[in-house]
Amino acid sequence: MAVGRVDFSGTVLGMMPSPKDVVATQRQLSYERIAGSYEPVTRVTDAAALDLDLFDISGQLALMTNDGFAVAQAIYQKGGNSMSIARIVLYEPLPANIPKGSPVEGTDASGGAALGTMYYDAPLGSTELSVLYTPSDIQAQHLSCRVGGLPSQSQMLDGCFAPTGSVTVEGYGTFQYVYNTVVDNTNGRTIQGLSTSAQQKMYHCSACPYPEYQKFYEYYGAFDYANEIVLAALAGNSTSFSRGNLAMASYSRISRSEVAKKAMSSMHVFMYVIRQMEHAISGCREDDPDAVHAWDEAVAYYAGSLEGSDGSGTGVFPYSLADKRCANFQTCGVDGNATAGTSRINDEVMKEFTIGAFHIMEGRCESVLASKTSVARRMTVPLVQSALRYVHRRSALGVTHEKTLAQSAIFAASVVPFVHACSEEDAQIIYVHSGTQSADPFYGEVKAAFERNYDCMGITCEDVGGLFDEFAGGYFQGAEPCRGKADDAEQPPTAAASSSAPVSSAPAPAPTGKAATATTAPTKSPFFIDTSFAGGRNETLSPTTEPSAAPYNKDDGDYIDFSAGNRPGHYGASRRFAIALVVLAMTYFN
User: Fold this and answer.
1) Phi then psi dihedrals of residue 523, to 5 deg
2) Dihedral of CA 306/196/116/360: which sign?
3) Which of 266, 269, 55, 267 is nearest to 150 (CA)?
4) Which of 61, 121, 261, 417 could staple 216 via S-S, CB 3.0–4.6 A?
């Protein structure tokens, strides 16, 4: 049904379509898939591009200099790649009120058209307009004006409004203006803002507090816990939470960079994905036509833009972490029994996102809640896997490098509040053995503490899997799955039992790209059609040998080349995908 939109004076401005009506209209358009499987029904290229901020931050942190850290913090706080806004100064005061959302057109610095919409209401007599640039439907070209906190060599100015000229606001006239292209082009979306806005958006909103966020607030005792962790890491300080503190005063830049960038993805973005799903549920219940857009944005934040529309890329947001950890825990593929390819977690999450979107279109709001709960629970699995992996490297493999300690600490910090909500005692065990002050961690204690709470957390032993030593062809001894998988007979033995020779300390070669070339080949998922990708790095490192400083660790399969000319600007050749996903989903509702 249609709903009326009301302005602040109570005047009905017009009848607005329901989410189902909006989708029926927007189905005429075609938007690029997200990570090869999810087809948004609204434009979310700008939201997906927030991952470019983390990419640029990582490149600056990789310099390991004071200046690099300062620029990284500027991008973290000011953004640069998402939601660009021009603040232009008018020569003459406005003759009338101009409402938010009014279309604006001007000329860019290269002489082309610059398009946008009013970002704020501009009252009668104002001499300033804030204009939100209109993003492109093409992800690789989403914005041609990118400034914010980016260093000068990464800025894109040609697509910004020219330094001086005129803009036409549809229905209100043409106005002469002037502004500083570098100073007055800012960003309304930043990674820091995902955390600093959490109190308002996740704790004090009408449907708040959101249960996942509440667990983190109650554990850390700070609304912007994620922001405080990043700022402390960048500055080399310690946090001052009620519990779960990270002491980083003695950390090197390598270790502090690990904490900062992993917190941005596994804390800031992780929780904001949940926020957007909750926001979509509220919108669905209120018959808000923007509900499906909020859901699409949740998917955009989960995967980011670097995964590519065909899913062949390598990103820096939660989707990417799930693919990396499945290689370590033999949970890749639709059956979750492979060590390469797309993770089963991502398969299930993207399927649930698709189902949730259809529920919104049909107005089945309580079913959307079920999809959100399923996604949120599955998103915790790669965090558990990461916490286990790094404490195992320290405890069982004897890696003593400070960077591994930092990785262990931040991944534990990203998931331990969920454990704390189930068992304070087990959460403390994990923190003691994984935190920044842990001197002699014991992997078995951490593994057992997690496993005692899987049921409470809504995940399973099969979801998590076991730490797999591909070189030896089995699980590391003592790191096996806590219960047999669906078919115990086909599971490989532990590394110790697979050979009479001593267990090798050398890990498996890193999987190449996303091709499914595992010990057990995964069957194809109907939700992931032909997403195999060949290429990428293939390096073998001793588990006791730390790689040189890199923005994402080579030993994690996280390496990204930040050399000149390698900054993302376009994706590889797109593959054609079957429409099985939509057909299956539509069949589901018929």
Assistant:
1) -75, 155
2) positive
3) 55
4) 417
Would you call the peptide bond into 502 cis, given omega within 30 degrees of 0 as the criterion?
A: no
CA-to-CA distance for 276 and 299, rounded, in angstroms? 9
- The β-bridge partners of 114 are 106
Provide the whole-model pTM: 0.81
Rounded-to-integer distance, Cα 292 and Cα 282, Å: 11
Residue 337 to residue 200: CA distance in whole angstroms = 41
pLDDT tens, 159-206?
Answer: 999 999 999 999 999 999 999 999 999 999 999 999 999 999 999 999
Q: What is the CA radius of gyration of the chain?
A: 24
User: Are 58 and 162 spatial neighbours (Cβ–Cβ below 8 Å)?
Assistant: no
Taking the CB of residue 12, how many other CB atoms lie within 10 A of it?
10
Residue with tokens 């779960």: 244
Instruction: Tell me the DSSP string of 207-247.
Output: TPPPHHHHHHHHHHS-TTHHHHHHHHHHHT-B---SS---B
Could you tell me if 257 and 282 are in contact, meaning their C-beta atoms sit under 8 angstroms apart? no
| Rounded CA separation 150/528 (Å) | 35
Q: Express each pLDDT in 219-270 by its tens digit.
A: 999 999 999 999 999 999 999 999 999 999 999 999 999 999 999 999 999 9
